[in-house]
Design a protein that fits this description.
Blueprint lengths: L13 H11 L9 H20 L23
Length: 76
């Protein structure tokens, strides 16, 4: 059962997310890997909450310049 957060949204369920997304992405997670993957997903979710809580004005978004990998001066 999912917990409900103070804002009314369902709490993130790392195990349920892993079970849904691994096959979708073509990943095989072994029983030995599962605890580490779940720990990472829980950490990533907490990091996302911090980023999403940052106040940003809608007008403050700008497109980043295009990144083109390669050596400087090597041509496009």
């Amino acid at each position: 059962m999912n917990e409900i957060k103070s804002d009314g949204a369902k709490a993130f369920d790392a195990a349920r997310h892993l079970d849904a997304m691994a096959p979708t992405l073509g990943l095989t997670i072994t029983p030995e890997q599962r605890p580490g993957v779940l720990q990472f997903l829980a950490t990533a979710e907490r990091m996302a909450e911090v980023v999403q809580a940052a106040p940003l004005a809608d007008a403050s978004f700008e497109l980043a310049p295009a990144f083109r990998p390669g050596l400087p001066g090597a041509g496009a």
